[in-house]
Write a structure and sequence with these properties.
Layout (H helix, E strand, L loop, with lengths): L3 H8 L17 E8 L9 E7 L9 H13 L4 E8 L12 H7 L3
Parallel strand pairs: 2-3
Antiparallel strand pairs: 1-2
Length: 108
């Protein structure tokens, strides 16, 4: 089953098409939760819930970005279902940018 770090690594392949920085380094991922799947083979699969935000509430790409997140995580072994919640509290701000994102965007 994947770890939080493995999920974050997978999500570094997801981008907001308007910003050339991955969604992890943009600070859009707020929380990742795991729930073991109950059943005969419950030890081998889990459901994953991701709480994330976007840089602006009116972002026209929110559906596509959410679909990217879901698809990337569902490719990982041991993941059964993925739920992506786009939330607005707390609001995103540039202070959430990683040092790598700041460097890529020329902010320092």
């Amino acid at each position: 089953m994947p770890t939080e770090n493995e999920i974050l690594d997978a999500l570094k392949q997801c981008y907001d098409p308007e910003i050339p920085v991955n969604i992890v380094d943009l600070g859009l991922i707020y929380e990742i939760r795991f729930d073991a799947v109950v059943g005969t083979d419950s030890g081998s699969q889990q459901d994953v819930t991701v709480d994330m935000t976007l840089t602006a509430q009116g972002c026209p790409e929110h559906v596509n970005i959410s679909a990217q997140v879901k698809a990337r995580i569902e490719q990982l072994p041991g993941v059964r279902n993925v739920t992506v919640n786009v939330i607005w509290t707390p609001p995103w701000g540039p202070e959430r940018l990683s040092p790598e994102a700041r460097k890529q965007l020329g902010i320092e």
